[in-house]
Specification:
This protein is an all-alpha fold. The protein contains 18 helices and no strands. Helix 3 runs antiparallel to helix 16 (about 355-380) and helix 10 packs antiparallel against helix 17.
Length: about 425
């Protein structure tokens, strides 16, 4: 294993990286645990409230649109304010989101809470935390260590998120053990989600001044300068990828499994747990692979075959084959996560990083916010996995376009290893 993923794979942080990175990774892990069970319980909870798949898709869309708007606003002003204080404010918003979903049952108020809150229906992180955390991590790691640090950031988040998907079985256990209504048990989990926001807040509080922008550099006049063209090009391609991914965000994948195979929540959470585990291990492999073949090649040549597996899922003859294809897909599909983040942080100047992280994340959220409602409509018509096929084709197109446009544009990480 050491020969495959390097001799530092067991370290929580790469050598020479500030302890601030560990605090960010810890907070990310706390949030990921909440995202893990919420993404699975959200459609179950909304079904219990009496909403149809189309309405559920609309609420999921609202969460993604809201995240996009907040992230865009944040990215445009983040170069002027303290990153630590913005992270603490985001934690307060997460606490309020959990309380809102636990207390509110009416559709339109829920839609509003979904829009302004931090709820994440995806297996990945699409919240306002993401550009802030990426900027902080890029600030405390040099080019040679940046991809390895982002790999650990993704690894811990995914592993704890996978544990969170297993926690989605708790409402059934609580209801059976203590004789409470399942609806009440589901509400408790949203309170837990809010409490995890408080845990993240406590972890962010001790962040040192090292995570802030260099005061001697001054405040730039514009959030994006000379790197604007490459950032916008990447944002457009990432949007295509996210639009495809929005057809099968974890909440909708769970909904399809419920409809097509009549699975229990416990069974669906176990499938998603092992899928997440496969994805987590791939993050460490992405580091030495990117050092050998480059960041862009790693992103494309691992992502493309994973989309073929996804397209084949609806044609699988039985549940065992579906599980095998999902596991194979996840073992490859997430290697582009740390490499993509590292690439974006590398091809812009330090002052542009908050805006670059935001601008590349916002169109992704906007694009991903459109497809869940379309997927919900398709699932209301048929239990066949059309959303998985459409999503896989779109994501494969993204891979090919990324390779054609960016294969010759290198990064500081790549230079550091040559």
């Amino acid at each position: 294993m050491s020969a495959l993923i390097g001799d530092e794979w067991w370290r929580p942080l790469p050598r020479g990286v500030s302890p601030d990175a560990l605090r960010v990774i810890g907070a990310r892990s706390a949030r990921a645990f909440g995202d893990g069970f919420v993404s699975l319980l959200l459609p179950v909870y909304l079904l219990r409230l009496g909403y149809e798949p189309f309405a559920i898709g609309a609420i999921i869309t609202s969460t993604l649109v809201g995240s996009a708007v907040l992230t865009l606003v944040l990215g445009m002003v983040a170069h002027r304010y303290s990153r630590r204080w913005m992270l603490l404010g985001a934690c307060l918003l997460m606490i309020g989101t959990g309380a809102g979903f636990a207390l509110i049952h009416a559709y339109w108020p829920l839609l509003i809470v979904a829009f302004i809150g931090t709820l994440n229906p995806s297996s990945g992180d699409v919240s306002i935390f993401l550009p802030l955390e990426h900027t902080v991590l890029a600030e405390v790691a040099g080019p040679a260590r940046r991809t390895a640090l982002f790999a650990r950031y993704s690894l811990f988040g995914t592993l704890v998120g996978a544990a969170g998907t297993l926690a989605a079985a708790l409402p059934d256990l609580i209801a059976a053990r203590f004789g409470v209504a399942q609806h009440t048990a589901l509400q408790v989990m949203f309170w837990v989600y809010g409490a995890l926001g408080a845990v993240a807040l406590l972890l962010y509080r001790p962040l040192s001044p090292a995570v802030e922008a260099d005061p001697e550099a001054g405040i730039p006049a514009r959030p994006l300068g000379k790197s604007k063209r490459i950032v916008y090009s990447l944002a457009a391609l990432f949007s295509l990828d996210s639009f495809g991914g929005g057809f099968f965000v974890q909440s909708l994948l769970a909904l399809w499994l419920f409809q097509a195979y009549h699975l229990s929540v416990a069974a669906a959470s176990a499938i998603l747990f092992w899928s997440s585990l496969c994805a987590a291990m791939s993050f460490l492999v992405a580091v030495p692979l990117s050092e050998r073949i480059g960041l862009i090649n790693t992103m494309v040549f691992t992502h493309l075959p994973s989309n073929v597996f996804l397209i084949l899922v609806p044609f699988a003859p039985n549940l065992a084959t579906v599980i095998g294809l999902l596991l194979a897909r996840n073992a490859l599909s997430q290697m582009d996560v740390p490499t993509r983040t590292s690439y974006v942080m590398a091809v812009v100047t330090p002052a542009e990083r908050p805006a670059a992280a935001s601008v590349t994340a916002v169109p992704r959220s906007l694009a991903a916010s459109v497809s869940p409602i379309l997927a919900g409509y398709l699932l209301s018509l048929s239990a066949f996995g059309w959303p998985l096929i459409i999503g896989g084709v779109l994501k494969a197109a993204y891979d090919l376009l990324l390779l054609l446009k960016f294969r010759h544009i290198g990064s500081a990480e790549q230079t550091a290893h040559e």
